[in-house]
Backbone:
């Protein structure tokens, strides 16, 4: 709910500015966007962090990058390089960190009620068989992930909630055919789809999936 409110406030703010611009009331929307576009990164970071407890590295990174860029735009901070020039070296650093971390081979089989999982410059397959599944926090950067929940079940507290950030990669979430799934997300040069079977599924959702997709894709489905 907090994520939806933050996103709603951002959309409302830009809608009001657009209306004032169209009415000729001295608001130059193009100039405002050029000067304040880093606030979009800040908003996305806040949306990630507003989801509650769990893995929030992606939200912190986006929030930090947005604040630095906005300070530069405002003349408060002078960066000697463009932020886009930092993408490649930062990616190399992340790759080095990933190579130093211990990695399990093959499919990871778990029975955790809450799943924290990331995929950095690699592919990860996770099968979770918890009979009291409550949710997951997923982070995919320059890689791919498959989360298979078909061997598990949701506990008494419904809905379970999955929050995922997918950047420059892809993710598949597999769920049992009996689950009612509701998917929402913020696609930024990316997309998501809910391919679960909707037939005969009325009432409240068993699983809620909230996504932020940046130059990537995510599918929620019943079969591979």
Residues:
């Amino acid at each position: 709910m907090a994520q939806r409110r933050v996103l709603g406030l951002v959309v409302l703010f830009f809608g009001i500015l657009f209306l004032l611009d169209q009415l000729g009331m001295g608001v130059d929307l193009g100039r405002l966007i050029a000067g304040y576009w880093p606030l979009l990164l800040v908003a996305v970071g806040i949306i990630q962090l507003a989801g509650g407890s769990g893995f929030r590295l992606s939200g912190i990174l986006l929030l930090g990058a947005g604040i630095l860029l906005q300070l530069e735009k405002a003349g408060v901070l002078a960066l000697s390089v463009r932020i886009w020039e930092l993408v490649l070296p930062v990616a190399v650093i992340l790759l080095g960190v990933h190579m130093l971390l211990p990695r399990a081979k093959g499919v990871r089989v778990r029975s955790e009620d809450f799943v924290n999982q990331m995929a950095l410059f690699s592919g990860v397959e996770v099968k979770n068989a918890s009979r009291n599944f409550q949710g997951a926090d997923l982070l995919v950067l320059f890689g791919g992930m498959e989360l298979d929940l078909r061997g598990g079940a949701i506990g008494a507290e419904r809905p379970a909630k999955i929050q995922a950030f997918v950047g420059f990669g892809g993710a598949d979430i597999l769920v049992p055919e009996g689950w009612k799934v509701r998917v929402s997300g913020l696609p930024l040069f990316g997309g998501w789809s809910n391919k679960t079977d909707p037939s005969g599924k009325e009432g409240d959702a068993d699983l809620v999936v909230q996504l932020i997709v940046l130059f990537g894709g995510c599918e929620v489905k019943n079969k591979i």
